[in-house]
Amino acid sequence: DSCPSSPPTSPSQKCGLLNMTKITEHGKKVRKNWTSSWTVLQGSALLFTKSQGGGTSWFGASQSKPEFTVDLRGGAVEWASKDKSSKKHVLELKTRQGTELLIQSDNDGVINEWFRALQDSISTHAWE
Ligand code: I3S
């Protein structure tokens, strides 16, 4: 229901508002910069767009270009260890391209759903 434009039968389609920061880019550590991003999972692609003025609607997101896209194929997702962040409910996503991201929501139900969706996408698209 948070992704009105996607077919209800597709498990790897999900979107929502999450906090996100890169921690590594092309294998090099980068400075954290937490931003609130409208996040869209489409098959093996994870898209982040800047959320504008607290607007969380799909309509608003579909009009802004993806700020950043991650290819999940060959990647891995796990719960971030305590030393990675002081925040609660943090996922660590590693891509085959050497990018590491932290993804966070204050809502544990929300982050659990994303954990499952990302795992599902990674295993579904593993052999492409
Ligand atoms: O892993 P760190 O360095 O403790 O991460 C914190 C910093 O990035 C901090 O910003 P600056 O030190 O660049 O001003 C952020 O405001 C914090 O949110 C970061 O820590 P958390 O634990 O929130 O991920």
Arithmetic mean of pLDDT: 86
Give every kind of bound small molecule, once each. (1S,3S,4S)-1,3,4-triphospho-MYO-inositol
What is the count of β-strands? 8
Rg calc: 14 Å
List unreliable stretches of 5+ residues. Answer: none
The share of residues in extended strands comes to 35-45%
Q: How much helicity do the residues have?
A: 10-25%
Order of helices and strands: EEEEHEEEEH
Total count of helical runs of at least 4 residues: 2
Walk me through this protein's architecture.
- With 128 residues, this protein is α+β, with helices and mostly antiparallel strands.
- The chain is 18% helix and 37% strand.
- The protein contains two helices and eight strands.
- Strands 1, 2, 3, 4, 5, 6, 7 and 8 form an eight-stranded antiparallel beta sheet that branches.
- It is globular, with a radius of gyration of 14 Å.
- The N and C termini lie far apart (29 Å).
- The mean pLDDT is 86.
- Bound molecules: (1S,3S,4S)-1,3,4-triphospho-MYO-inositol.
- (1S,3S,4S)-1,3,4-triphospho-MYO-inositol (I3S) binds next to loops.
